[in-house]
Design a protein that fits this description.
Number of strands: 10
Strand content: 15-25%
Largest sheet: 5 strands, parallel
Oligomer: single chain
Low-confidence stretches: none
Mean pLDDT: 93
Strand order of the largest sheet: 3-2-4-1-5
Helix content: 40-55%
Distance between the termini: 79 Å
Length: 279
Amino acid sequence: MSRLYVVGTPIGNLGDLSPRAVKTLNECDFIAAEDTRVTLKLLNHFGIKKPMVSYYEHNLRERGQMIVGRILAGESCCVVTDAGMPCISDPGEDLVKLCAEAGIATVVVPGPSAAISALAVSGLATSRFAFEGFLSVKRASRFSHLEAVRDDTRTLIFYEAPHKLLSTLQDMLSVLGDRRVTLARELTKIHEEIRRTTLLQAVEYYTVNNPKGEFVLVLEGAQPKTEEVPELPEAVGMVRALTDGGMSLSDAAREVARQTGYKKGVLYKEALQEALKET
């Protein structure tokens, strides 16, 4: 029967491709691949010879309709991404929607997922989490995204490229405040690295160490808000503690204001006056 198969592929180690995935790729009529050159290497490794069509972000509307048409005409198609599960931060999401609208049966062949793999080894809470994907390259959109999840108590998962990692960590520290983070780099590959640290320490580390490879950031969720509000001197002490840890006074005042309900300007002024008294 003609249908769409959503097939997970390895995120680095080719040994992670399941026997079922190999069988499905062998038996389908054609493969829709994000990058046919990348998928060809995988197919060659397993001796699979199948016709492919490129299907990626900039041609998904045109190719999507073409793929749906071929399936409706009686062919079966496997959709794959360069690494991991299709449809997760991937244009395969749109193809599944098109197939659903056309009444085409869709079958999933599970495979590796960088997000879930990183979460599993993060050492952070796994019972409740939110996958946030890539942050926007536009600064305003990036800050808006971070503000939207600032009070989320679930563990947060982000993807990031090496050339944007440091600026992303700096923005996270500025908006979310210092909290625990696990950086999973090059998962399942030769240079796999799991770094469990804090946002502040991560900024310090990658300021002097050039990031290499693809990263998954697993970030501790916000602490649940309590009804008990600290006295102003205690709140000012919280600001001073953050500045002693390397955070700017403005960012520290903003973070404590978020936690306590005091106005940022009041906290900033009081903390600044205390600092001046000590000089």
